[in-house]
Amino acid sequence: MNVLNDEQREVIIKNSNLVRYKERDVIFLQNTRTSHIMYVKSGLVKIYKEGRNGKVIILKIETPNSYLGLTSVFGHDIHQYSAAAIDSTDICFTDINIFKTIIKENGLFSHKLINFISLENLFLFERLMSQSHKQLPGRIADVLLYFADKIFHSNIYTLPLTRRELAELAGTTKESFIRTLTEFKNDKIIELDGSAVEIKSLKIIRTLSELG
After folding, report:
1. Cα within 13 Å of Cα(128), Cβ side
2. CB atoms inside a 10 Å sphere around CB 15
3. Cα-Cα-Cα-Cα dihedral of 167, 122, 206, 171, to 10°?
4. What is d(CA 111, CA 60) in angstroms, rounded to the nearest whole number?
5. Which of 72, 112, 132, 202 is the most exposed place for a label (fewest CB within 10 A)?
6. How far apart (Å, rounded) are the C-alpha atoms in residues 42 and 25?
7. Where do you find CATH 2.60.120.10 in the chain?
8. Where in the sequence of the chain do the CATH 1.10.10.10 domains occur?
9. What CA–CA distances, in Å, run from 1 to 11, 101, 106, 118?
10. Does the domain made of 134-211 have the CATH classification 2.60.120.10?
11. pLDDT tens string for the chain (212 positions)?
12. Which pTM was predicted?
């Protein structure tokens, strides 16, 4: 928004509305048509995709200042994934046609959006490589580092997802995720108290992530 001029900012404000979602509320579903671009003003959002067999894969967690639905601006107008609030979340909805008009008018704004999409795609490529080539300890290490480095920016945090959801993020079963997490705890790599995590040996976690 800081690259918009006053007139464009006013148009966005007049054609947007803020919606507050409670924990676990669905924001939109896969395969539904979109008419708005969504901006995460506060809270955490789970982005997930469901396969034909009902298997769910969590693609990523969106944090404040992220956009949802940008693929509908530059490509398909059908949501390719679902989104749900992890905690109390404020989402700003902007009419997609207004958004498209401003993109055409403001080159710097367009550049920032393309950069955002490029980083999103790069992250998803890295996630695909992790789940395709890494062993389970490496994938669990990736999840722990994801929350430490990208979400909470701290080695001490509370996991915001259930054990089943964490397994869906790691691309494994709930039982395998719990077993590996317990092994990390027993090996003094992490401290674990319910959902509270402290990474005690960041070096080991990063090594597990890198070596897979």
Report:
1. 6
2. 16
3. 20
4. 23
5. 132
6. 14
7. 6-123
8. 134-211
9. 12, 15, 11, 19
10. no
11. 678 888 998 999 899 999 999 999 999 999 998 889 999 999 999 999 998 888 899 999 999 999 998 876 676 788 889 999 999 999 999 998 998 899 899 999 888 888 888 888 888 888 888 777 889 999 999 999 999 999 999 999 999 999 999 999 999 999 999 999 999 999 999 999 999 999 999 999 999 998 87
12. 0.88
Report domain 6-123's class.
mainly beta
